[in-house]
Amino acid sequence: MVTISADDPRSIQAVELAAGASGWIKIRGKDGRPLAFGVPSRSTPGKFWLANTDRCQCPDFQFHPGPCAHVLAVRLRCELAKAEGAHRKRRSATTKSSDVSMKPERRSQNRTRLVSGDTRP
Ligand SMILES: [Zn+2]
Questions:
Q1: Quick one: 77 exposed, middle or buried, by C-beta within 10 A (0-12, 13-18, 19+)?
Q2: How far is the CA of 119 from the centre of ligand 1 (A)?
Q3: Near ion ligand 1, which residues have CB within 5 Å?
Q4: N or C: which terminal CB in the chain sees fewer CB atoms within 10 Å?
Q5: How far apart are the CA of 52 and the centre of ligand 1, in A?
Q6: 7 CA distance to ligand 1 centroid (A)?
């Protein structure tokens, strides 16, 4: 769960950073799941901080207690990605159920016959 407070400047920064999440550098693990993100530094243009949902490289995280704006932004982005993924899954499930009613077994049989006919000399 991500808590955003309008009184907390880090939260506001995090929302702004998360809005530009498409421009982040993604670091993926062997299974393809994102391990960390290169979140752009707000004070130094062109600089990226390596951050995930727990840690960040930036001085704010090193010297101040609690998650910095980058960590909060990564958490926000992960929550958004989860919500989008759930939405997409639901939609593809509906498409699948309509495919089943079209009797895919018959269709694949026809295709096999067609292909074998084409390859015959
Ligand atoms: Zn940070």
A1: buried
A2: 61
A3: 49, 56, 58, 61, 68, 70
A4: C
A5: 9
A6: 19
pTM (two decimals): 0.69
> Ligand 1 centre from 80 Cα, in Å?
19
